[in-house]
Amino acid sequence: MNDDDLRETFARDGVLILPDFYSPHELAAMNAVIDQLLAEPLETGTRQPNFYAQNYQTDVQGLGVEASKHPAFIEFQSNARLKALTKAALGTEFIDEYLLVQCTRAGTGQAWHQDSSDPKNFVLNRLIYTRDIAPEMGQIVVVPGSIHRGRIPAGGHQDSLPGEVAIAPKAGTVVLMSTYCWHRVTINTTRTPRVSVNYRVRPEGAPAELTAVANFRNGQFDFRTKVASE
Questions:
Q1: DSSP label at 152?
Q2: Which sign does the torsion angle of CA 155, 186, 44, 69 carry?
Q3: How far apart are the first and last CA of the chain?
Q4: What is the pLDDT of residue 110?
Q5: pLDDT tens for residues 42-81?
Q6: Are 193 and 104 contacting, i.e. CB atoms less than 8 angstroms apart?
Q7: pLDDT at position 188 over 70
Q8: Is 204 exposed, middle or buried (0-12, 13-18, 19+ CB in 10 A)?
């Protein structure tokens, strides 16, 4: 795709899937850090409140704070190809938000949700898969074009939605996705942790704290107050 095609596709779908964007060599240093963090006790990293996991069927171990201390992750934030891709897709400058390294352990997943609740603004998820994700480890499922369909409708946490596309990313895949896009991660039925790296950025002009409130099919959750609502 040229820059115009990237921008047009992202504006239409709210998601871009780019296999083989990076080589294994380019990801090796980050993988070494991830292996180190995964070898540490399960308590390493941040866990969402138990209420969140129980009510929204989403249980993720966050390793971003620890990963962000390592040179490999600090250096990658300035990756020239990632910056060029981001600007091409957005058609504007952007502001770095924060790093998420999310680990989905055995028996867990992420229910259908939108990472933000403002229909006019969004944060850009830049998901980088540093290793192969087999389908049984948890596919990422997206609904292209859902950014134009408002709040995600009520329903089951993992029930299918019309127009959904399921992806089992290979190492080197990059997924650019609006936080307003409907998406989920299927249950990891293996004993291998599923890991994704996400360098979030905010388009220039978009307000801060857009990801403070997430939409699920059975309600909203405010990460600042840890309060759920309809």
A1: P
A2: negative
A3: 40
A4: 93
A5: 776 666 656 667 787 788 889 999 999 999 999 999 999 9
A6: yes
A7: yes
A8: exposed
